[in-house]
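Before any further analysis, we paired sequence with structure tokens, yielding the entry below:
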Amino acid sequence: MLAQNQDSSFDGLTHATENILTHALWLAKQKEEMSKSEYRKFLKQHGWKNEDKRYLKVAAVFKHFKSEDLSQVEPATIFRLANNPKKYQSVIDQLQNLEEINQAVVRELIAQQRQPKEPEQKQVSIWRRTQDGRRYCQIPPIHETDEITGTTLQKMMDEEGLTAQRIVAEAVALRQAYKEGRLVLVEPESTDLSSEEEIFSEQQTDYDNIFVDLNLTNTTDSEVDVFEEKDEELSESGWTEEPEPEKDDNTVNYGEYAAAQFQQERSPVELLIETFQTANTWEPIREALLVGEDYKQQAWEALTPVEKKRIRELMPIEVKKLSASKQAGLIVDFKELREGVYQVRRTGNVLGEVVSASRLDAFLAQLRDISN
């Protein structure tokens, strides 16, 4: 008895679909035969206003079908096809060629005509804005299986005391220089040497030549020792400095003014000499050389052997390597642009190449291969 009721229910739905199609086609015919005012009055008599639009769409899409042809398709599917005729046009066209149409067939055709959407190619932007409208860049997260980028960046931050922003900025600048042809990519080669100092162990060279035109090999170790002994003797006798000159009345009255005037009247050479004599790290020396490059040889020659030795001890290993390479004729000149970044001019090149400290060994190794 239950099965009979179920069959009867589906039969009723079949009649519902036929009735919908029959009514839609009939309503479309009424609209075609009536004037606009008559059609509006006709709808009003039946309490309809805009309800006819759904059925007119059904009539427009299925006007070439008979009501009984689509009786096995449930009503919601009929309205779905009618409401999106452009989207389901291929389905509607295929239905016209079928001998039997039912719900399963229509559902399969709908599934077949679905085209997978191509992922939209969104242009990634790193730019963000603060609340006051200022723009800043934000690099998206970097996901890597080996985490090499993150671990390398963290190591640089820990060892060099730099921020991640500073390191990324330098990396971008180096990449841009490479794209513009101002930087040469050098493949590293294997070596049996275990330390940076051993790289130049075969070249018995003096690392003193850190400047472009300086010859710092004129002072021998014996001369330095003699100078240090004399310096110790002076220290023991109490004459570590020249005695202060006697002050006259003018010096007493105008001491502060005279000191200010002296500061202003000092030449670039004197300022560079003072930096050499007072610097405790390489950073102030590097900054002074960038400003007073034309006076560095004159300032260097004014230093004592002990002062020169002290500056050599402050010198970074990269600067020593570049100085040795210049003496060996591998490069013509070099300049320290900022900490760990150097502009190197090789023989035959007018423009310098930007080389970072991390790539310096490979760069110099390539020059040695070329020279050999």
